[in-house]
Amino acid sequence: MVCSLVSNGRGTTMELTTTRWSRTEQWSGALPPWDGPGTLVLAFGASALAAAPEPLRELAAAYPTSVLVGCSSAGEILGDTVTDGGVVVAVARFASTRLHLVHEKVPQPGDSRDAGLSLARRLGADEPELSGLFVLSDGLSVNGSALTAGLIEGAEGRTSISGGLAGDGSDFAHTWVLIDGEPRSDHVSAVGLAGPALRLGHGSRGGWDDFGPERLVTRSEGNVLYELDGQPALELYKRYLGDRAAGLPATALLFPLAVRVPGAYDRELVRTVLAVDEATMSMTFAGDVPEGSTSRLMRANFDRLIDAAHLAATDTVAVADPAAAGPGSDGGGGGAGGPTLAVAVSCVGRRLLLTRRTEDELEAAQAGLPGDSQMVGFYSYGEISPVSAGTCDLHNQTMTLTTISEQ
Known about the structure:
Blueprint: E1 4-6, E2 15-22, E3 26-27, E4 39-46, H1 54-62, E5 67-73, E6 76-78, E7 81-83, E8 87-93, E9 98-105, H2 112-126, E10 130-137, H3 144-155, E11 160-165, E12 177-179, E13 182-184, E14 187-194, E15 198-205, E16 208-221, E17 224-228, E18 231-232, H4 233-241, E19 257-260, E20 268-271, E21 273-277, E22 282-285, E23 294-300, H5 302-320, E24 340-347, H6 348-354, H7 358-367, E25 373-380, E26 382-386, E27 392-395, E28 399-406
Helix pairs in contact: 2-3, 5-7
């Protein structure tokens, strides 16, 4: 399936279509004439589109009064397929859900928390009955942990928060977020959703296994790790990678860190390396690695990664519609009374590891969603989502899903 239109025919829930653009075939299906303030347009595309943004400008021209958001990717997801070099698009026209869009420029990583705080407060001021925030951020110049902390503080526990950090394949050179229809770096976008008919679901699972000794983070600054157990972090990490160390930072995606933060040792966060500094023997991660944390290396089992994608999907059903995910439910089948938009944000490290089995992960996720779902998304440099306990965090190396529907 490359383009599908789903509606219940009564006009009481949202209408939904998905399509794909490629340089060889252009648009796989016509863009529906649904422009208006109640339409959400999501677009995920190759980072190279920053230099040739024609399809993004076509979307902006087709939907001048709609809420248009998107970002660069490390692979574009449409249904159970992943492609590179193009754009995937979902257009959702809501019957009653209210949409609000805000942006923030983040000149320096140190501004990330303030940006998140401002985004959440601005949306809360625009919409007192806010139900959810969907956030897309530059993947390289923004500290995802600090951004998420600011969003949580600004939202004051009144709304769910999910989204992800833009990607750039395994190059880690340039990422962008759509701002007024143009791809721009150093920015964050947030969409606020509200309305009595709105149903939101979320799920985030990893499937990685810890190995090796547990080590103490003895020196770090934000998301830059300098020392583990008093030893240079990069030197120690290279010992584990062996011959793979020559491919850093990309090969680090195969061996993330499991981090347990002081005061919350029951909650394990996964952190992925974005960059290494040979001069200081340090590593920069997609999220914070606080001093005093404990950490262990992680590695993957293919089947566990794929199973985790399915569980993330079934978690969304349990959150959005608990009655449909009762005892014995596998998550698939019955939606919320209309079509469901599923936004998948999966880590680039999973794709690099799964290689030819990447689409198995997408098939597993899709199988766990309601039968009337349409899935779009991207491979990312970080995933933002609540977990089953309800705490929102920045994650790495997970399959994260957000579902949006009206009932």
